[in-house]
TrEMBL record:
InterPro entries: Alkaline_pH_Ca-Antiporter, NaCa_Exmemb
The protein's name in its UniProt record: Ionic transporter y4hA
Residue intervals of the Sodium/calcium exchanger membrane region domain: 40-190, 223-364
Membrane-spanning ranges: 12-31, 37-56, 68-89, 104-125, 137-157, 169-188, 219-238, 258-278, 290-313, 319-340, 347-365
Bilayer topology annotation: Multi-pass membrane protein
Domain of life where this protein originates: Bacteria
Signal peptide (residue range): none
Keywords assigned by UniProt, alphabetized: Membrane, Transmembrane, Transmembrane helix
Annotated PANTHER family: SODIUM-POTASSIUM/PROTON ANTIPORTER CHAA, SODIUM-POTASSIUM_PROTON ANTIPORTER CHAA
A Pfam family: Na_Ca_ex
Length: 367
């Protein structure tokens, strides 16, 4: 047996075993107070599940092609994350009033600044200039901006209900608008103008993986199932280690909102790693599809879900952002527009986005 064949068999073996082991670890740890060694084991399972999720997402993407591949990963992880948010809100009562807002805003900042900035940095370091489709990226950013404003900014200024909250009618409108606009974006991305969201290959021609034989339908279906298992393990194990994170945050005297930021960072690791790997292959548009697609899915699926759940959830639902976060959102939108409009970016644009993310993380620790 050749070394290459043995390496492929080993890779196939661990990407099947790790998601299953991670799911077993989740089953044993869910709802329990874990000692230090158990937390370490769950954290290792979490890291393994992230790597497995990225592998299986790439297998599925190679089979179905872009932009369907990035769409599968973005929607899958968001659906599981939304289920977790609704579950936590159902169990937490009034203390989870801001959970949906904090989680969605953290996802927007991490995707639109962290994933975008890191991808541009990686691509620019490799090719000097990162090239992508301005039409597709600009349309995605416009949709993200609209949904974020409708769902996270307007509640601060409406007057039908005290505080930064929507009235039931306003929440219903925001839910329908979010779901409708997200559905329209998916239609444009995958049917009407799919070419706007395909990678722009420069320099050395198509990436090497373009010439590789696509996996069989059976292999792709197996990877799709293992991708879902991996993502359940990622989100669930992130929740399992959250009490340890909460204790560490409390011991350090940091604001409680830091917990949500840390969990969001963990949950978005699969998209981040997949986007960086795509950027290294000169497929920056795939990276931007992942970033903006994840932000859109986070808003477009979370708001309708909590609107539906609010029928039986007790306690307030706070969606409106404070002044600091609105400034950061506005800065993200303006800089994002200046980045995507030319269809080309350098190290500078990537660095600017990373600085905005750093400001968000710093202000979460020191508001």
């Amino acid at each position: 047996m050749s070394t290459a064949t043995a390496g492929k068999q080993l890779a196939s073996y661990w990407t099947v075993v790790v998601p299953v082991v991670s799911l077993v670890a989740l089953a044993f740890s869910w709802g329990r107070d874990l000692p230090g060694p158990a937390v370490a084991v769950v954290a290792l399972c979490l890291a393994g599940a992230v790597l497995a999720a990225v592998h299986h997402a790439e297998v599925v993407a190679h089979r179905v092609g872009e932009p369907f591949g990035s769409l599968v990963l973005a929607v899958a992880v968001t659906v599981i994350e939304v289920a977790l948010i609704v579950t936590l809100m159902a169990d937490g009562g009034g203390k989870t009033a801001t959970l949906a807002r904090d989680t969605v805003f953290a996802a927007v900042m991490i995707t639109c600044n962290g994933i975008v900035g890191l991808s541009l940095l990686v691509a620019a370091l490799r090719r000097r200039i990162a090239v992508f489709n301005a039409e597709g990226s600009g349309a995605a950013l416009a949709a993200v901006t609209t949904l974020a404003t409708l769902s996270l900014v307007l509640p601060t200024f409406t007057t039908s209900k005290p505080g930064p909250q929507f009235s039931p009618a306003q929440l219903a409108f925001a839910a329908v608008a979010s779901l409708g606009l997200y559905g329209l974006f998916i239609t444009v991305q995958t049917v009407r103008h799919r070419d706007y969201f395909l990678p722009v290959i420069t320099g050395g021609g198509p990436a090497a993986d373009e010439h590789a034989e696509p996996p069989s339908a059976r292999a792709a279906l197996l990877s799709l199932g293992l991708l879902l298992v991996s993502l359940v393990a990622v989100v669930g194990n992130a929740k399992a280690v959250s009490p340890t994170i909460e204790a560490g945050v409390a011991d350090a005297g940091l604001p409680n909102a830091v917990v949500g930021v840390v969990i969001a960072l963990l949950v978005l690791l699969p998209e981040t790693l997949a986007a960086v790997r795509a950027a290294r292959r000169d497929r920056v548009q795939t990276s931007l599809n992942l970033a903006y697609g994840s932000a859109l899915a986070s808003i477009g699926l979370t708001i309708p879900a909590i609107a539906l759940a609010s029928v039986w959830l007790s306690g307030p639902l706070v969606l409106g952002l404070g002044p600091t976060h609105m400034v950061l959102l506005a800065l993200t939108v303006v800089v994002g527009a200046l980045t995507v409009v030319p269809g080309r970016a350098t190290l500078l644009q990537g660095g600017v986005h990373m600085v905005i993310l750093a400001a968000y993380l710093f202000l979460a620790v020191s508001p």
